[in-house]
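fold-stage: in
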Amino acid sequence: MTEPWLSVVMPVHAGERWIGATLASLASQADAGVEILVIDSSPTGATRAIAEDYADRLSLKIVTRTDLPGWPAKTNYGVEIARAAHVCWLHQDDLWLPGRAAAVRGWIAEAPDAALHLSASAIVDGAGRVQGIWRCPFTADGVIAPERLIERLLVQNFIAAPAPVYRKDAWLACGGLDAPLWYTADWDVWLKLAEQGEVRHHLGATTGFRVHGTSQTVLGSRDARDFAEQMQIVLDRHIPRLSRRNRAVRRASQASIAVNSALAAAVAGSFSGVLPAILKVLALGPAGIHRYVRDSRIVDRALPRLRAKLAGAF
């Protein structure tokens, strides 16, 4: 196998429903320089069997690690064994869109020393249909100033997990994913990577983030208190890094946490938190509401999920 220029880490668990489509989206890129690392903790061999069908089309390595129960631990392990200098990850239900490999190769060629590359992601439903685009709150390609990124990212994690590409050494230097954060480990690591070097933003979506009713996020968010605490931990951990607008960002972030928690509870059938969350957003005032809507990407995130539900493919 030639030395890869990119490693794709795939933490999987009982992924037989989705992993075939995910690996097919990688195989369609036909790039032998992309290394695929499947870290599998499944209780049966069904997921591995599907993955093995792609061994002749991908530079594929499958590692069974039933001792690593959560996706953060499996992802950290995958990054550790990655052979490429640049890494991204792809969950078992997400996708690469056509042209992803070529686009990422261009990003790296343009800025090989950047710690983190960001981009939008399409939101796809359970049937694989694109229902919307989840964008970062930046309107141009280029370097994002650290303070600007942190200020906006603390309001809400606006980065879809399959989209970013990062330097392996930067990931290792910042400690990777915090395993106890089952919901917000990715949000936390983007903020940590922003301390490791330059961050670049790229327009256009090259990945598909799948929304469906059996995702870990949907199932885990049924514990409303733990769900809110996951977000609060990240806010409290990183907001001291802001040198200005600390109070305004915290208020917008608290409103975002209230909205996210209310929406998660509503999915589970409880609507008691919806009105208090709306009032918390309204209390921000015009400038604060603008900040919340811009940085939370609430429209980008919510409307595609609604379309998926109405289409019966959530």
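fold-stage: in (second)
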Amino acid sequence: MEIVQIALLALIQGITEFLPISSSAHLILPKDILGWPDQGLAFDVAVHVGSLAAVMIYFRKDIVQLISQWCVSIVTRKQTDGSRLGWFIIVATIPTGLAGLLLHDVVETYFRSITIIMVTTVVFGLYLGFADWHGKRALALSQMTLMMAIVIGLSQVLALVPGTSRSGITMATALLVGINREASARFSFLMSIPIILLSGLLQGLDLYQEGIESAQTLWLDLFIGASMAGISAYICIHFFLRFIQQIGMWPFMIYRLALGAALAGIIFFD
């Protein structure tokens, strides 16, 4: 890939990973629409590493608190808000982790077409708007229950299909069960850590089996991709959490509907 393609794809990954608009869809579309070469598995791993680094650095204090309180709760068997949240993240991650391991090859083979991306972009864009409109948005993370975490975790499985958006489906479901916007986004971002880590490990295993030489990707390209994805993701998380209570989810729903309409036009005139 040329440097412009590397930079653009890294920015797309970093920005769309945490916005409710589907990073997987936006990474597939340049190749299919612009005729760009496939970025390769090594590049996918690199930008995921960048995104993971961004969310872990941004929530570093929360992560330390969650892990420490979760470990203490195992020993003392006394729960705190932090330990409960840690358990909820684990419980919410299990369905998607198992589904990803079982359905990874199926999704990669059959669910990456522009038509499927167009449908999921529109359908789950409407779901996002519906959830923001009808959700009570009254509860903080400390008021979350185990059942809420399970429901949000089950909804995350749908994000295996490109165009759905992992952050979008989890935020929307959290809003529907009554969690406020900022808390929904925060829980979604914290949930992303084990999912991105598991996804990166799975891709890394595939890359190891494939052989790093066969990817024909320069280490400098990987460094640029990871760095740009990480920086853009960090900035995106910061401003999204800062303004989500005011702007809501409707701008993202409108964007998704516009993108879906553009994809429908591409399909129709192709």
